[in-house]
DNA sequence: AAGGGTTTGTGCTCACAATTACAAACCTTC
DNA sequence: GAAGGTTTGTAATTGTGAGCACAAACCCTT
């Protein structure tokens, strides 16, 4: 059975809401409540979950702890993922210092830069390696994910190198339409594109039309 | 006529490719070439553009300069947009220092933080203001876009304040399912969700299955 | 000026995703 | 233990977007 990518994209949303509920001590939650919490219809949630099994109880809802465990297992969040950051400039520094990855099982274990002033620096328990050593290091010590935060001009090059080293998931902050071979997964973070599409709505709504932009 | 949001989301992609082509001195481009450049089918591009008019010439293609101007006009990129950054921490600093916004007409004109050590600092020709002055400042000196880079816990609060100040477009980096009233546009940057959905594919492909994740 | 080679714009079809709607299952209370 | 009130899981329907295919339009060459 083939699961639609949109469904996979929503599952992490559900896990995050469930984590919050669990921290609040909640035992069960209905698709209704989860829906209003996330801005998604209850039927959507039920249908998405039904791709993977039957996790709820009629008349009652979903056991928060149980559903969270199931989703963690489905998404592969019940293990550690090793990541490398390429490009430790202004943005790379913020990424290295971000405390949101670790608790979700995503650990940054390598960082690379081309600037001689950066190479060798210790940041967040990590020693910045030379960009020249990227291939050698990753071949010896593989990572699951590559985070690309280098200037646009060399991003495709870096991505190609990552692919050659067997990296199969890439998170790219570079503003280019990067290409990867099939079997490699790429997600782009594109704040400028997001702003540009919102500009359209700003321009074309006389101060208060309905119909919010997809987020 | 109502234009599908997905179409609006693709237009900025086209403008970026066209800009590159223009810098290379190209005069005309076909939907075919633009398509392979962006990983989109030519028919998709033609259909998207046809929502707004007839910009090409049969047998020839699109005039790069002309199409770029048209798209800039359609998206509202032929003017300056004023932005405020809320939260000048690790990420906020990278945003303030990012040179990718200006050339596209998005100018950061205000920055706010709650940390006394940050308030008053001059960064990139900007003086960091106190978070307490957010409402007062924006009411006197409105901005078009708010960029939210504060901790998750207070993000909804900041967003509510922005909305109250008449901000109608918000780019949020906070990992929360923020809600805004209709007529306000919100886009979220969510690296963790992107990683989590890629984890699913990493886990469920025996090292080389086709079907790349939507990016 | 005619013909061959391109490429656009768009009606039509197909695929897929969201929503609706309801029977089945469950809990609680009396 | 029966009745009333919830909520799930899913079959069926609706809605929407992507791709196909082709006539019309254009360029260039001879
Ligand atoms: N700063 C932001 O908020 C932001 C936002 C969106 C996108 N981006 C994108 O992220 C990327 C980085 O942005 P930034 O603001 O950090 O720029 P930056 O110039 O501060 O950092 C780039 C870093 O990459 C390093 N580098 C150059 N070549 C390299 C190589 N071959 N291997 C490894 N490292 C190399 C440089 O030494 C530098 O430290 C850019 O593509 C930018 O467009 C940044
Ligand atoms: N660093 C990253 O790469 C990254 C990536 C994705 C998401 N985020 C998100 O971006 C946000 C900021 O992350 P960060 O790493 O910069 O954290 P940070 O702690 O370095 O920065 C947060 C800043 O917000 C300021 N602040 C607190 N309350 C405020 C208020 N009421 N008004 C204005 N400013 C206030 C703090 O003083 C601090 O300077 C968080 O929500 C985080 O989850 C960060």
Task: Describe the model.
The structure is a homodimer of 215-residue chains. The first copy, chain A, is an alpha/beta fold and 215 residues long. Chain A contains 8 helices and 11 strands. The first copy, chain A, has helices spanning 5-23, 31-38, 42-50, 64-75, 90-96, 134-140, 152-164, 191-203; strands spanning 28-29, 56-57, 61-63, 81-86, 106-113, 122-123, 126-127, 129-130, 145-148, 169-172, 185-188. In chain A, α7 (152-164) links the parallel β9 (145-148) and β10. In chain A, α1 runs antiparallel to α4 and α2 crosses α3 (42-50). Chain A is globular. Chain A starts with a helix and ends in a 12-residue tail after the last helix. Residues 209-215 of chain A have low confidence and may be disordered. At the A-B interface, α1, α5, β11 and α8 of A face α1, α5, β11 and α8 of B. The complex binds nicotinamide-adenine-dinucleotide (2 copies). One nicotinamide-adenine-dinucleotide (NAD) sits between chains A (86-92, 112-115, 118, 131, 149-152, 154, 158, 173-175, 191) and B (94-95, 97-98, 100). The structure holds a DNA duplex (30 and 30 nucleotides).
Can you lay out the helices and strands and say which pair or pack?
The structure is a homodimer of 215-residue chains.
Chain A: H1 5-23, E1 28-29, H2 31-38, H3 42-50, E2 56-57, E3 61-63, H4 64-75, E4 81-86, H5 90-96, E5 106-113, E6 122-123, E7 126-127, E8 129-130, H6 134-140, E9 145-148, H7 152-164, E10 169-172, E11 185-188, H8 191-203
Parallel strand pairs in A: 4-5, 4-9, 5-8, 9-10, 10-11
Antiparallel strand pairs in A: 1-3, 2-3, 6-7
Chain A binds a DNA duplex (30 and 30 nucleotides) through residues 4, 6-7, 30-32, 41-44, 46-47, 49-50, 54-62.
